[in-house]
Design a protein that fits this description.
By secondary structure, the chain is an all-alpha fold. 79% of the residues lie in helices and 0% in strands.
């Protein structure tokens, strides 16, 4: 019942829908940039570290999704 209520509220508000993958990418990007900004001193180090963290976040997220898939069916 709560799930149906949430769908009705979202439909009425006209809020944009975002997929799980898009949300994961956005989260990975924001956290990677924050970590790079807090831990590295030069701009080139920050870019390399942010890109590395972003790709690692995506790889781990996709791997966990594949591991969880058999339990959803």
């Amino acid at each position: 019942m709560i799930a149906n209520w949430a769908e009705v509220v979202n439909a009425q508000a006209g809020s944009p829908q975002i997929s799980h993958f898009s949300a994961m990418c956005l989260f990975a990007l924001l956290i990677s940039v924050a970590l790079a900004g807090l831990t590295k001193r030069t701009a080139s180090e920050r870019v390399k570290y942010a890109a590395s963290c972003f790709l690692k976040f995506l790889a781990v997220g996709i791997a966990i999704g594949w591991l969880m898939y058999p339990f959803s069916h």
